[in-house]
Hints:
By secondary structure, the chain is mainly alpha-helical. Helices cover 71% and strands 5% of the residues. The protein has a domain at 2-149. The protein has a two-stranded antiparallel ribbon with strand order 1-2. Strands 3-4 form a two-stranded antiparallel ribbon. A hairpin with a 4-residue loop joins strand 3 and strand 4 (102-104).
Amino acid sequence: MVNSSANGLHLDDETRNQEIVTSLRGFLKHQTERVSLYKEFNDAFKEYTAKRMTSEEYATICNIVTQGFVELSIEILALEAHLGGPTHTSTINGSAPTPSSTTTLTATETSIESTPNRISLDSPEHAQLIRQVQLLEKQKLALTVQGQKWAMAKQEQEAEDEKEREAELQTDRVVSIETEEQGDEGVEAEVEATAVQGSDSHTQAVNGEGIKLSGEEWQAKLDGNRAR
């Protein structure tokens, strides 16, 4: 059986089926490459947030990953059109967060035009599957970038909170030292006052009339009274 394509060229069923299988295998290959790009993107972000990568190095990797996503998207859209899907444009939007600036995952629009030699395989069901995956991948990229922004904001907030805690601890240390110094001065004053008071009491005991006599002195006093 001969199948007519949209551009007037003809494919028999066997050739058409082989082309469909080849296109789908190509799509799977591109998806594998896309997974590798995501891994590189996430690994770079982890290294950057762990302070093991500079902002310039991170921006360079983001640009490389962006270009990779754009090229893959163009090739996948070409496969979609080859399978009989409508013509789309490749658009990649997103922004990878950096502390001082934003590295943009560049929005690129590229028309995928069917060339005269590009035969439509008239398989809209397969083209639709690829379209659904493309839409999900677009959402995934947006969520990945947003997640990185939130992670960056959280890290910055935690760093700010840590600075505030350190400042509070330093203030507490200063207050504690001042309190200890004041306490030491109070103890010294109390000891000095006690010593002075004890000295006065001793003086009064020595000079006062209430001094107790020894046994011999009492005996001598009694003997003197009897002699009178």
